[in-house]
Design brief:
Layout: H1 3-20, H2 27-34, H3 38-44, H4 48-71, H5 78-95, H6 103-111, H7 116-142, H8 152-173, H9 177-190
Helix pairs in contact: 1-2, 1-4, 4-5, 4-7, 5-7, 6-7, 7-8, 8-9
Length: about 190
């Protein structure tokens, strides 16, 4: 057994859970898709919940990997970094045909009332995302892109929550309109 096997289980499982949901994705299906024998799963994970918690870390790391080049791009102003991150989100959602939504948001809707460890881990991820946005908003104030009167914490919370709401509506509408409206409200009304 190697670390590569564990990574393969998480990678394949994360993709399947993103498509079908946590409870609708069976361990047998994950292992079959990954081409890994059942015994390997229990070598790495105590149970499906343990797997799910590590899968959340996988999603979080994937987001960080996508955001990092934007966050460190000195040619972008703080507000342009935020716009670029949201543009990247929207592009990813479009590439999936407006069907999958956000894996963290999906799990929050599905699992928060069913598992306290899931709820806590998901809260950590959303709190981290809020902190990242707040940091960029603080930088935008320092760069005179935004007025000092902006409450950066509340604005960052609103950005996370309204975007996830727009994603839910997008999944129902199967088009970009909810994302476009949310983006416009954030960047052309609130942060103008």
């Amino acid at each position: 057994m190697t670390q590569t096997t564990k990574e393969r289980i998480i990678e394949v499982g994360a993709d399947m859970v993103h498509r079908y949901g946590f409870n609708n994705t069976g361990l047998k299906d994950i292992l079959q898709a990954a081409g890994i024998p059942k015994g390997s799963f229990y070598f790495y994970f105590t149970n499906k919940e343990t797997f799910g918690l590590e899968m959340i870390d996988y999603y979080r790391q994937g987001f960080r990997s996508q955001a990092e080049p934007i966050l460190t791009d000195a040619s972008l102003s703080p507000l342009n970094k935020l716009r670029t991150i949201f543009d990247q989100y929207r592009s990813s959602l479009e590439n999936h045909g407006f069907a999958r939504g956000c894996p963290i948001g999906n799990l929050a809707s599905e699992m928060s009332d069913l598992s306290e460890p899931f709820r806590q881990k998901l809260d950590e991820v959303m709190t981290g995302l809020t902190a990242m946005y707040q940091g960029l908003l603080d930088e935008a104030i320092a760069a005179h892109e935004l007025p000092q009167s902006i409450d950066t914490y509340s604005t960052a919370v609103f950005m996370v929550e309204s975007w996830h709401g727009a994603i839910i509506r997008m999944k129902v509408a199967k088009n970009a309109e909810p994302l476009t409206i949310c983006y416009d409200m954030i960047f052309n009304k609130i942060l103008r």
